[in-house]
Write a structure and sequence with these properties.
This protein has helices spanning 26-37, 56-63, 76-89, 102-105, 134-142, and strands at residues 46-50, 68-73, 95-99, 114-119, 146-157, 165-166, 169-177, 180-187. It is of the alpha/beta class. The mean pLDDT is 93.
Length: 188
């Protein structure tokens, strides 16, 4: 796994020795970021990477010009590797790491709301997508943490099809690559 483009292009990311992660392949990450570019989401924008693992998506956003990224992860062993990746990339001042269950805290807002939030929970946590599901509750929380016209990109198994609306969000696009899908929602 590596950073694909931007100021840190080619930098290899460290990975934890665990079977619990689902790293996104370079090819899929490149395709996802190509899709996100049409929404003008990187230069100077505020981003959050929820269930971030080693920070692949958030670090890619920083490399491509994001102003700041909040990383939210619950596993302390993974956070240790994430910290090394942030330091290796030189993005310590442009980032914040929060050890928490993203389903409970969302993106953790300080002063500014987010322009883009990556939501990448374990697939087992996205099997239920209805109004009272954990994912629905998270999207309701994120509705208060995202700037007007902000985007949330939710990664799921390709068989999972999100609803057209979740609180303040409307699905605007869905892309599928191999066994995974990303649904892009915009705040109304």
């Amino acid at each position: 796994m590596r950073i694909i483009a931007g100021t840190k292009r080619g930098m290899k990311l460290l990975s934890p020795k665990t079977q619990n992660s689902r790293p996104i392949t370079d090819r899929v990450k490149e395709s996802l970021f190509s899709v996100l570019y049409k929404y003008d989401l990187f230069d100077g924008k505020i981003v959050a990477d929820l269930f971030c693992g080693v920070g692949s998506l958030g670090l890619e956003a920083l490399s491509r010009g994001a102003e700041f990224v909040s990383f939210v992860e619950n596993d302390p062993k993974v956070i240790a590797v994430l910290g090394k990746n942030i330091e290796k990339a030189g993005f310590v001042k442009e980032s914040k790491t929060v050890r928490a269950d993203a389903f409970k805290v969302g993106a953790v807002v300080d002063e500014q709301k987010y322009n883009l939030i990556f939501v990448d929970p374990p697939y087992s946590d996205t099997r239920q997508i209805g109004e009272r599901s954990a994912l629905s509750e998270l999207l309701t929380l994120l509705g208060e943490q995202v700037a007007p016209d902000g985007i949330v990109a939710v990664r799921t198994n390709r068989r999972t099809k999100l609803l057209e609306r979740y609180g303040k969000f409307t699905t605007i696009e869905r892309r599928q690559w191999g066994t995974m899908a990303v649904t892009i929602l915009r705040k109304k």
